[in-house]
Write a structure and sequence with these properties.
Blueprint (H helix, E strand, L loop, with lengths): L1 H23 L8 H17 L4 E7 L4 E10 L4 E2 L5 E3 L4 H14 L9 H4 L1 H4 L10 H6 L11 H10 L1 E3 L4 E3 L7 H8 L17 H15 L3 H13 L5 E2 L13 E2 L6 E2 L9 H4 L1 E4 H12 L7 H7 L13 E2 L4 E7 L2 E8 L4 E7 L6 H9 L11
Antiparallel strand pairs: 1-2, 1-14, 2-3, 4-10, 5-6, 7-10, 8-9, 11-12, 12-13, 13-14
């Protein structure tokens, strides 16, 4: 913990020194106006089509920054989207969960090859191959465990519980801090495994629900507290929280499903079952801080921890909570009303965050268009 704390302090001091130097040079350097204009035009073209109705893009490179928004945070009242708007970030949450597990491994609280049965014996007993599943299997989606959201009951329950107002064009679902044991009982127990642990790869939200339960058992504290003390506070993230499991610290922008006359406002539909697999709310500035903290290694004591997280499991392009691609490392997220993306490009030491307030549009498809104008100015790794 001491090394990690010292590294975080050093990172913060370097950031402050950079900010002071930049201030002496008339503030942080934005991309040149022609680049900003091109990126903004790409964003405006997307939101003009209505898919998404609003969006945020932040690009954080060593020498240049872009922080922009387009479209609306609220269609009904035509409130413009702010660059600091808060979104439900869906599966980007998995990067936070994996980070905490790796920190606990560094501290000797657990190991990545611990059997699930060591931490959650009553749960492991009710899963196929439960005695063979390890934490590493869960982190890399190689456990074979059936995914919560693939249950026939999941979405039928979600919309059966939701209050739908066709006149207002909205749907709502009360914020409930759900017991993950109940979630497993309802959607996972009794389902067949996709394969034996380690014998394949299948993306499963259940893996990360189980890891959230392990974190709470290992720390004897709520998951939200682990995120806060181990990630938000060290990195100065003030606008991130676990929806429905702690007090909101910022209001989310409106989120939508559908298009045109069939658009439904899902802002008040709280899909809290997502929890440790997809339940966080955050902003682009906070996600930039997280991306910088994670991929600089500042959140770990041992440099090998980040190496482990960014090494894909055999036969996959997924590490420990991180999608491994070329040229990006990161994660995409999707939850009712929102689609999100956090990527890091090692070759350019650049963090990219793209947030949409519609779950029918894909920020991964728009990423290249957003970055192309900036690429000539990004520093190439030596």
């Amino acid at each position: 913990m001491r090394f990690r704390t010292a590294l975080i302090v050093t990172l913060v001091l370097l950031t402050l020194l950079s900010a002071l130097t930049a201030t002496a040079q008339d503030g942080p350097q934005p991309f040149p106006s022609e680049v900003v204009t091109e990126i903004q035009a790409e964003m405006d073209d997307l939101t003009a089509s209505g898919l998404p109705p609003g969006m945020v893009v932040w690009i954080d490179a060593p020498e240049y920054q872009f922080a922009g928004a387009s479209g609306f945070a609220d269609l009904e009242h035509e409130i413009p989207m702010p660059p600091e708007g808060a979104f439900r970030i869906g599966s980007i949450t998995k990067m936070f969960t994996a980070t905490v597990i790796v920190q606990l491994a560094e501290e000797g609280v657990l190991t990545l090859d611990d059997p699930l049965a060591l931490w959650l014996p009553e749960v492991a007993d009710q899963l196929p191959y439960g005695d063979q599943i390890t934490l590493r299997h869960l982190l890399t989606h190689t456990s074979g465990v059936f995914s919560i959201v693939e249950s026939e009951l999941y979405y039928s329950d979600l919309f059966a519980e939701a209050e739908i107002d066709p006149d207002a064009g909205s749907a709502s679902l009360a914020c409930v801090a759900r017991d993950p044991h109940d979630t497993l009982t309802r959607y996972v127990y009794g389902e067949d495994a996709n394969f034996e642990p380690g014998a394949g790869w299948h993306y499963s939200n259940t893996n990360y629900a189980l890891l959230g339960m392990v974190i709470e058992t290992a720390t004897d504290a709520p998951l939200a507290e682990a995120y806060r003390t181990r990630i938000y506070e060290p990195l100065g993230m003030a606008s991130t929280f676990l929806d429905c499991y702690e007090e909101s610290v910022v209001d989310v922008v409106h989120g939508y499903m559908g298009f045109g006359d069939n658009t439904t406002d899902l802002t008040e539909l709280h899909e809290s079952i997502g929890w440790s697999a997809g339940g966080l709310v955050s902003t682009a500035p906070d996600l930039i801080a997280f991306g910088r903290g994670l991929f600089s290694g500042a959140l770990f004591d041992d440099p090998e921890s980040l190496d482990a997280m960014t090494t894909p499991a055999p036969g996959s392009s997924y590490g420990l909570g991180i999608m491994i691609g070329s040229p990006y490392l990161g994660h995409a997220g999707g939850i009712t009303g929102y689609r999100t993306l956090l990527n890091y490009a090692p070759a350019f030491d650049t963090v990219v965050v793209i947030l949409y307030n519609n779950d029918s549009a894909d920020p991964e498809q728009g990423q290249a268009a957003m970055l192309t104008p900036a690429l000539p100015l990004l520093r190439v790794e030596d």
